[in-house]
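Weekend entry, working from home. Most of the wet-lab plans are on hold until the incubator is repaired, so I used the time to fold the two sequences that have been sitting in the queue since the last round of cloning. Logging both here for the record. First:
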Amino acid sequence: MATNDNGVAGKERSLNFLEEIIEDHINSVDGRIHTRFPPEPNGYLHIGHAKSICLNFGLAERYGGLCNLRFDDTNPVKEDVEYVDSIKEDITWLGFRWAEEHYASDYFEQLYQWAVEMIRKGLAYVDDQSQEEIRLGRGTVTVPGTESPWRNRSVEENLDLFARMRAGEFADGEKVLRAKIDMAHPNMLLRDPIMYRILHTEHHRTGDKWCIYPMYDYAHGQSDSIEKITHSICTLEFDVHRPLYDWFIQTLGIFPSHQYEFARLNLTYTVMSKRKLLQLVENKIVNGWDDPRMPTISAIRRKGYTPAAIRAFAERVGVAKRDNVIDLSLLEFCVREDLNKTAERRMAVLDPLKVTITNYPEGKSELFEAVNNPEDESAGTRQVPFSREIYIERTDFMEEPPKKYYRLAPGAEVRLRYSYLIKCEEVVKDSEGNVVELRCTYDPQSGGGSSSDGRRVKGVIHWVSVPHAREAEIRLYSNLFTKEDPNDVEEGKTFLDYLNPESVVVRKGYIEPSLAQAATGEKFQFERVGYFCVDTDSTPECMVFNRTVGLKDTWAKIADK
C-alpha cells in the first residue's frame, strides 16, 4: 500500500495527463514549474474551486515549483475586498501557501501600453457600435461575421480615441477597443474580440484611476506572461479560449505561457454556478454564503469538513479531460474516513426518551471511563457520569419489536455503552398513548462494560445522564436539492423547484457534560449517530452542533458494484 502526496493510502497510480505534460516539460526545457490560481473576487469559492486549488498548488508542490495567487479583478462592478479576504482564508485553510500575491489590476498600465502597441501595428481599433450590434455582427457558427464600419479607422484616429477613452471623455458602452483578427474565423472568439470596455465605476484597489477595463481574454494570458507562468491550468470550458490566449501572446512577442484544460468538478445534488448560488443567498433560501447546505468552502468548513478530507477527495476524483459528475457520497466518504481517525467520541441523544432505573439508589451517581477514539490510543479516555435517570434515543426502543431487534423492548435487556446492563420492566404512556418514560432495572454486577456472570447481550445503546446532561441545539443537514442533477430542469421549472424542504432539521437534544466546553469548529463523533462540529452560532449558554456527515457509508457500496 502506497501513500500519495495528499496522504491518501492506495495503490500506486499512473500519472494524469497534466503530470505527463509537466514531466515532459521538466525533461525538455529548463525544468522550472510555475502555476497560478486566478479567481475573480466576485463571490465565495466553492468545492469546484477547491479541486482547482489542490491541482494548481499540488502540482507546484509535487514538482518543486511555485504557485501564485492572482486575483482577476478586471470587472469592478461585481468585485469586492470581502471576496478577496474570503478567498485567501479558504486557500490557507486548505493548507496551501502562495509564492506571490498579484492582481490583474497590478498590470493595468502594462496592458494599456500593449493595447497601444497593437493599435500602432494595425491590430486593434476603436469601435462605436453598441453591444447588440457587435453581437449580431459576429455571425453564427455557420455564417461569417460582418466587419464593423469602424474597423478601418486610421492608426492615428484609434490612438486618439483610445487615449480619450482612458481620459473619461466617453460614457459607458459608448466605445470599445477590439482586436483586429478575422471576422470569418471558425472560432467565433477570434472574430475581433473586445479588449477594453468603458466602466465609470470605483475599483476596489485602483479607485477611480481607471474608467476603461480589460476583458478577461485580453488580460489573462498577458498576466500569466508577466508572471512567467509555465502552466496555466484552467477548466475545460476555456479550451475554446486557448487560441485567443495564444494569439495575444504571440502578437505581442512576450513570454510564452501556455494554457491547459481539465474537466471541472460537478457533484450530484449540487449547483456550482455563482449566479445560482447568489440567487440562493439573495432570496434568503439559505442563511448566507457559509450556510452548511451550500457548496462553498466557507460553508463546508462550517459544516465540519476538514482540509485533509477535501484534499483526499480531490486526489481520488483525479484529473480528466471530459466533464463528468461525481457522486456526493464520495466526498462524504473522504470526510468520514478522515474524521474516523481524528474526531473524539462523545455521547449525545437527539430524540430523548427518559429512562428511570428503579433499583438504582436515588441521589447516587458514578463515573465510567469512556474511550475518546478507538482509532487513536493517544486520545486517551474521559469520565462519563451515570445516575438513576438517563436519556436514550427514542428509536432505541420498540414496544412491539420485530425479529432480530436487539435494542430495548418490554422484557428485553441491553447494555448501556461503557456502563450497565438494563432491562425494561414497565412502559409509561401519556393520555394519548405516547410512550413518555421507561422504567428499567439494572444489573449491579455488569458495570463498566463487563458482566461478572458471563451474560452477553447483542444490543448496545448510547445514553446521557439526566442530571448531568446539557441541552444543545442539533442541526441535521441534508442535501439542499432532491434531484440528483438540479441543473437538469424540466420544462417550465427552475433549479429552485427541486429544493429539499427538509434540508435542515433542528432538534433540541442532550449532550454529555464534557461537550459543554467544546470550542467553535471542534469535531466529534456522536456515537451511533454521526459526525458533528460546534457551529459558529454556539455559545456557552446554548451549544449548537452541525451534522457533518452520518455514519452510514453509501460510497463503499457504490464502489463495490
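Second, folded right after the first finished:
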Amino acid sequence: MSGITSGLQFLYALALMLGVLVTVHEFGHYLVAKWCGVKVLKFSIGFGPPIGFGRYRLAWRRGETEYVIAWFPLGGFVKMLGEDPGVQHSPQEESDSGRSLFAQPLWKKLAIVLAGPAMNLLLPVLILTVWLGVGIGRAEPVVGTVEPGSPAAASKLRPGDRILSVAGEPVLDWRDVEDALRVRPGQTLAVRFVRDGAEQQVELTPQRRAGLDIFFSQSQVGFSGLQHARQRALMNVREDSPAARGGLRSGDFVLTVNDIVVESWSDFARAVEAAVESTPAPGEMQLQVKRLGVEDLLPLQVPALLPDALGVMPASTMVSDVAPDLPAARAGLLPGDLIIAVAGEPVGSFQTFRDIVMASEGRALSIEYARQGERGRAELAPVLRQAEDPSLPERYVVGLSGLDTLLPGAVGMERVLNPLHSVPRAAALSAGMIGIVLEGMWRLISGRISPTHLGGPIEIARQSQRALQAGWVQFMGLLIFISINLGLLNLLPIPVLDGGQALFFLIEGVKRGPLSLRTRLIANQAGLLCLVALMSFAFWNDISRHWSGFVSWLSGLL
C-alpha cells in the first residue's frame, strides 16, 4: 500500500508542477493572441483526448474557443487560426482569414510566440513579490563559526559579528557574504561589520584553494574560514591538560557551565569567561557533560581557566564513521580521530575537509590527524562514487563521515510590503537565478558539464515529490527554478519551440515574404527530431538513475 501511495504522490506532484507551468505558459500565448485579435480555436492543457469518464469530459466551448484539459500532462498548446499552413479550414474560418496568425504584422506575431516564455520568466517575479509581502526566510549575515588558523581568524573576526559589506558591496544575507569572498581569492578585502553595537572594519584576504562551484565543477575559490552555522560545544581535549585531569574527554558535549546553558562553542567561551571573572583564582567551575555512549549526564569539576589555558578547542572535525573498503579505512583511520590538516593546511571544519576531498580530482592527499593526544599521518587517494542523490554527479570521497557538530546560524525574515520596493527586489532575485540557469546551459552546451546530468520528466516528478513532502516553501522554490528553465528552453532557436517560430517570423520579415510550406515542414521535422532525441536522452538518464528504486517500488506493489 505504501508503494501505491508513493506512486500516486509521485504522479500528483508531477501533474501539479507541470500543470501550473504549462497553464501559465499557454495562457501567455492565449492572452496576447486575443489581445492582437487572432482567432484562438483551441486552448489545451496537456496532450491527447480530454480527461473524462463516460459522457463527462473536461472540455467545453466558450465563444469561438474550445478549452480542454487532456490526459497527458507533459505540455499543452494554443491552436490559432492559420497556425498550420496547408490545413483545410471551414468556410467560417476562411471568412476570418484576416484574423489568422500569419495575417498579422511581424511585431504581433513575435509578441504572440514570445508571450509563453515571457510568462514563465515573469511568474517567478510575481511569486517572489507576493512571497516578499508575506516574508521570506533568509540566513542573516551573522558569523556563526570562525575556523581556527583561517584568514578570518587572522583578521580577528568573531562569531556573532554581523557583516555589513564586503569590498564596499553591501550584503543582505549570508549568501552575499559567501559569494563575495569565494570569487575573490587572494584579494585583500575590506569587511565592515557590527560588534556589540559598534561598526568596525578589518581587512580579510581569502586564501586561494581548489574548490567546487555551484555546478560541482572544480575551480579556484576564496577560502575565508567563515561559516554561517554555529559550532556546537563539542570538546577536543588536549592530553594531560587541566581539562583532561578534570575528567573531560574529546568528544564530550558541554551542556552547562556553572548552571548556564550553552549550545554553541561561542556560548561555552562566554560562559567560561564569566566563570573566570567571577571566581577567585585558583577556582573551579562546574560542567554538565553529555558523553557519547553514556546515557546519563556527567557532572565534572574543572579549573576555572579560559579555553586555551584549560586545554580545549572545538572538535569540529571529529570522525564519526569510517566506510569499509574505501581509502580512509584502508589507511587505518578510526571513529573518534580528529582531522587536523590536509597537505599542511589546517582544517577547521568537516565541511572544509569535504570540499578539499571533492575538489582533489583523485590526487593523493596527505592527512594529519590526532588520536588520543598523538599525531598521525595518512596518504588518502579519493575515489569517485555516486552521491546519495542520483541526480547529482559522482564525487570524490575517502569514506569518512563527520560527527554532526553544527547548529543553525542566525535566521531572519525579509518582508517588503511596498510594491515599489518588492517588485524590483523580486526581479533582482529572479535575474540572479536566470543568470545561474544560463551559465548551466552554456556549460552543458560547451561540454563543461556532462550531459548525463540532464534530467527529464521522471527527475522533475521526483524532485517535485520531494519538495512537496518538505513543504510548500520548497515546492514553490522548485516551481520558480523549473519555470525559469522552461522559459529559457523555449527561447532556443529550434523549430517547434517558440524561439524557432520567432526565428521563422524574423526571416520572413527580412525577406518580405513567407517561407515555403516545404521549408517550414522540413525545418519543423528536423526540430521535432532534435527535441525528441533530447527528451529521449533525458528520459534515459532518468531511468538509469532511478532504475533500482523503480524495481524496489514495483516489488512493493506485488
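Plan for Monday: verify the second prediction. The mean pLDDT is 86.
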